[in-house]
Input
Amino acid sequence: QIYTAGTRDYAFKVSDLLSRYMVGAKDEEEMMSLRENIKCLENKLASMEKDHDKKENNPEEPHKNVEGNLSTEQKSTDNEENSNAPPRKRVKFSDECLSSKGDTLRMQLRGKREILMEAEKLEASARILRQQLFGSRIISRTDVGDLGRDVKDLKRAFPCGGVMSAVVDDREDVWANAKENISGRAGEPPLNLLLVKPLQVVYDAGYADVNNVSGSDLSRSDVSLPEEDEQLLWTADILTRLHKSYYAYHKMESTKSVPDILGEMRRNVLRDRPTNILLSGIVPIHGKMKGRPQVLRYAEELGAKVFTECKPEVTHLVCNREGTLKFNWAMKKPKCVVVRTAWLMKCLWSLKRISEDSFMFHVPENPTTESENTDASSDDDFEAELEKEMFG
Output
C-alpha cells in the first residue's frame, strides 16, 4: 500500500515517472517533443510535394521554391524588366535538387517514426509495470482529507492497520497522534514509520508539495543536489531488508509484524558494540516536553543506552557545539567519541551504523567552559540549531 501526502494527480505523476525510469522509457515531455518533431517533418514534406505537383500541373506559373517564395530566376527577370540594373546570376532549382531534398526529409521522417515506435513500446511496458507495482494501492491525502491536516488514521490508509505496512515519510509530527496506532508509545509515531531525510527538490508547477514544510531548506539558500541521492539508496536498502525479514519469519510460521521487525532493525543499529550516549545542548531544559525529546528517542530506538550524567561508561557525547561542561569532560576522556547530532540522524535515516569520523569534534585551541544550563540557551535557539545540524 502506498500513501502520499500530495494530491492523487501528484501520486500518479510520481508512480509514472518511476515506472518509466525502471524500463528506460522517455518521459511525457520527451514523447511530446518527439511527436511534435515528426509532425513538423510531415508538414514540411507535404508542402514540398504540393509545390512540386503544382509546378508540374502549371508549367507556365512562375517558379517558386520550397518555402513558396518566388525563385531567384523569377526575381531576376522582374528586376530586369523594372530597372536598368545589370543582370544577376540566375539560380535554377532542378527537379533533381527538389527530389533530393524530399528524399532527405523522408529518411529523417522514417528514422523519427522508428524511434517513436520503440519509445511507445517502452511506454506501454511502463504502464504495465506501474499497474503491477502500484495498481490501485495509491492513497493520497485527498482520499482521507476529513481527518484534519495533522492527524493520520492508519486503518483508513491501510486496512490492516499498519501491521503489514511501512510508512515512509520525512515528517513524523503528523503521525505522532495517528489513530489506530497499535505500536509505539502514546504521543509518539508508530514503529512502522520509516523517517527519511527531507529531499530538496524543485517541483513541477502542477505538482507542488502541498506540505511545503519539510521541503523547505532549513540551512542553505543554494541547494545543489547530488546525482544520486543517498536517502533514496538508504530507503531502498531498508525496504529490501524489511521484505526479506518479513518473509523469512513468515516461512518459519512466525507472526512478527512490520512494526516489530522495523523496531528490531532499529535496535540492532548501535547494538553491534556497546554504545552509551551522553547528550549535551540538544534536549531543551526550558518549558514542558510532550513525551520523550526527539534525539533521546532516536538514540534509544537505535539500541543505545542514554546517560544523563558524565559516567566512565559513556562512549559517545552527542552535541551541537563546543564549550559545555560535558563537552570539555568528554574531550579529555580517551575512549569517548564526541560527535555532532548529524551522526545520530544518519544512523536513523539509513538504519546502519555510520562511521563517526566525518562527524567528530576536534580539540579546540582555546577551550572555554560554559555552564551546563546555557547548553540550550533558549528553546527557540535550540530548535533552530537542531534543525540546522540535522538538515545542513
